[in-house]
């Protein structure tokens, strides 16, 4: 494990967070990793919680909330504080939540809505700051067909 995780920016243009996040979480769990989802808004975590139960008719993603029992045992943990109670290797940042300390994570995902101008400006500022700090960055955006392509 390196001291500096990969930090991947996901620029949403054609899809919503509720469409993209479950797929990214499935890939994370397939790697044998745990995930921590951080948002500074409890209502957003409520929405994500609901989406992870219902995103597919034949499946759900096992998850829990940091403020509930057995947080440490959850493969996917939803948190406002971002404290890594479940020993996650992947950190997902939504709604402009602060990235905070990244030590201990293998990869951080910063997911933002490119159709929301304040979110876009915030992501650009964050990219510039992290780049200046020598972070290991990648930028992903959706093609016209909806596939993710590495743009930087």
Description:
The model has no long low-confidence stretch (mean pLDDT 93). Strands 3-4-2-5-6-1-7-8 form an 8-stranded mixed sheet, sandwiched between helices. The longest helix has 16 residues, at 117-132. With 152 residues, it is an alpha/beta fold. A hairpin with a 5-residue loop joins strand 7 and strand 8. Helix content is 28%, strand content 25%. The chain has 3 helices and 8 strands, in the order βαβαββββαββ. It has helices at residues 17-30, 42-54, 117-132; strands spanning 6-12, 35-38, 64-65, 76-79, 90-93, 107-113, 136-142, 148-150.
Salient structural properties:
152 residues, alpha/beta, 8-stranded mixed β-sheet, 3 helices
Largest sheet: 8 strands, mixed
- What do the pLDDT scores average to? 93
Number of helices: 3
* Percent in helix: 25-40%
Number of strand segments: 8
Look at the helices and sheets and give the structural class.
alpha/beta
- Strand percentage, roughly? 25-35%
Low-pLDDT sequence parts: none
Rg calculated over all Cα atoms? 15 Å
Strand-helix topology:
Layout: E1 6-12, H1 17-30, E2 35-38, H2 42-54, E3 64-65, E4 76-79, E5 90-93, E6 107-113, H3 117-132, E7 136-142, E8 148-150
Parallel strand pairs: 1-6, 1-7, 2-4, 2-5, 3-4, 5-6
Antiparallel strand pairs: 7-8
Describe the structure concisely.
The chain has 152 residues and is α/β, with parallel strands linked by helices.
């Amino acid at each position: 494990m390196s001291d500096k995780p990969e930090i991947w920016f996901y620029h949403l243009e054609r899809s919503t967070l509720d469409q993209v996040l479950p797929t990214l979480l499935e890939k994370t769990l397939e790697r044998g990793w745990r995930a921590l989802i951080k948002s500074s808004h409890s209502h957003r975590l409520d929405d994500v919680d609901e989406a992870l139960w219902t995103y597919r008719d034949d499946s759900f993603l096992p998850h829990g909330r940091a403020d509930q029992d057995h947080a440490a045992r959850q493969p996917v943990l939803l948190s406002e504080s971002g404290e890594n109670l479940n020993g996650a290797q992947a950190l997902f940042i939504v709604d402009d939540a602060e990235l905070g300390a990244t030590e201990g994570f293998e990869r951080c995902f910063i997911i933002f809505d490119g159709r929301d101008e304040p979110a876009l400006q915030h992501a650009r500022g964050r990219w510039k700051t992290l780049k200046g700090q020598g972070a290991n960055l990648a930028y992903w955006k959706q093609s016209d067909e909806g596939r993710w392509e590495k743009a930087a």
